Each structure stands twice: as structure tokens, then as C-alpha cells.
């Protein structure tokens, strides 16, 4: 469904107006994670999404992120083990309830940030690239006709959960991207007043 990967050095098209893309961006809405069900993306679509996600701005070409695909039945095992770990969290009942988001979606993509300290590219810029990956995955999922939700929960921070997920030293979870088909259309939520958050810089003479 998506075009093939360009070859290194290929001239790429100069952007032209895309009403479809503009409409998708203007109406983009995360679907509630608990409401994401079958069908989810196929393995081929997951590979396509990852390829799209990896095309984000990446100062220094460091690829300061990596992907973990979580599918069933492995996801069911993960959720079961996290249920055990939830008992040790500050609010066990809340931690257990949070697992419903992870359990519902047919497929979850885990985006892991892996910044390089001391590099000429500031760590902050490397981390921002991971956030851009998560957003690109959301946009790509919507373009493929799926609902998506980008979240982190306690298992993105608890050391025992990170070890279970294979998150190594110096790595952080940028987000869990839950993918599936929404049970019903998501409703629009309150949005910030963009004009109130915008200023125009002018030099002081």
C-alpha cells in the first residue's frame, strides 16, 4: 500500500498540496486504548509502519531509538507477568487497571529511546527524535485505517517491568503505540487555543 523505500541518493518529490493529508491531520484523534480490538495490522503492515516511523528527522543520523513488536500470544504472557508486578506498585489496584490498555490492542509497538551521552548532537535532540517516531507511527496507523494510541504507564518506568521488556541500561521508553480497530468512532476532545500559545518574534531596536 505504501510506496517502496527510495534508494540512497534518489531524488524525492517536491511536496505538493495534499488535501487528504491535511484533513487527516486536522481530524486526527487518538482512539481509547481499551477500545482497540481486532483486526489489528498484519505483520506486513507493522513492517511498513516501522519503516515510516524510521523516516523522522534524526540529527546526526544516530537512529537514537529502536522498536519492539508485541503481538499475541506473547502479549498475553507479558500482561500476565505485569499483573504480578502490579502488586508491588504504590497503588496496586490502579496499576492493575492500567493493564487493560495494553491487553486490549491486538498489536503494540514499543518505541525505546537510546540516546548517546556526550555526542555532538545534544541528548535532548536525540530524545525529541524518539517522540517524532511515536507521532509518525500514529499518523501512519491512521493512514492505514487503524486506530492508535500513544501512552506510557507505570510499566514504562518500573525497573522490574523494564527488565521484563528488555529495556537496557541508558534506554528509556518513549511510548507504547497501541494499534487496532476502534469499537466506535472516538469523540473530539477539548483542544488548546493555539493562537493564545503563539507569539511572533520581532527584534528590539
Distance between the termini: 54 Å
Contiguous low-pLDDT stretches (5 residues minimum) are none
Strand share of the residues?
Answer: 15-25%
Which H/E pattern describes the elements?
Answer: HEHEHHEHEHE
Number of helices: 6
Shape: globular
Average residue pLDDT? 96
What's the CATH first level?
Answer: Alpha Beta
The name CATH uses for the topology is NADH Oxidase
CATH superfamily (homologous) name: NADH Oxidase
Radius of gyration: 19 Å
Q: How many strands in all?
A: 5
Description:
The protein is α+β, with helices and mostly antiparallel strands and 205 residues long. It has a single domain (31-183), classed as NADH Oxidase (3-Layer(aba) Sandwich). Helix content is 36%, strand content 16%. The protein is built from six helices and five strands, in the order αβαβααβαβαβ. Strands 1, 2, 3, 4 and 5 form a five-stranded antiparallel sheet that branches. It is globular. The N and C termini lie far apart (54 Å). 25% of the residues are buried.
Amino acid at each position: 500500500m505504501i510506496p517502496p523505500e527510495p534508494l540512497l541518493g534518489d531524488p524525492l518529490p517536491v511536496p505538493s498540496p495534499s488535501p487528504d493529508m491535511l484533513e487527516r491531520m486536522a481530524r486526527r484523534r487518538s482512539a481509547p486504548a481499551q477500545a482497540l480490538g481486532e483486526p489489528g495490522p498484519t505483520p506486513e503492515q507493522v513492517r511498513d509502519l516501522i519503516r515510516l516511523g524510521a523516516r523522522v528527522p534524526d540529527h546526526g543520523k544516530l537512529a537514537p531509538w529502536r522498536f519492539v513488536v508485541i503481538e499475541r500470544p506473547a502479549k498475553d504472557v507479558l500482561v500476565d507477568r505485569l499483573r504480578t508486578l502490579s502488586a508491588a506498585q504504590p497503588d496496586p489496584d490502579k496499576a492493575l487497571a492500567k493493564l487493560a490498555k495494553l491487553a486490549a490492542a491486538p498489536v503494540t509497538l514499543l518505541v525505546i529511546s537510546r540516546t548517546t551521552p556526550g555526542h555532538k548532537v545534544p541528548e535532548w535532540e536525540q530524545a525529541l527524535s524518539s517522540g517524532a517516531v511515536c507521532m509518525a507511527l500514529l499518523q501512519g496507523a491512521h493512514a492505514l485505517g487503524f486506530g492508535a494510541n500513544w501512552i506510557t504507564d507505570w510499566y514504562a518506568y518500573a525497573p522490574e517491568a523494564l527488565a521484563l521488556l528488555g529495556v537496557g541500561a541508558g534506554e528509556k521508553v518513549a511510548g507504547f503505540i497501541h494499534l487496532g480497530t476502534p469499537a466506535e468512532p472516538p469523540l473530539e476532545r477539548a483542544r488548546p487555543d493555539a493562537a493564545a500559545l503563539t507569539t511572533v518574534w520581532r527584534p528590539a531596536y
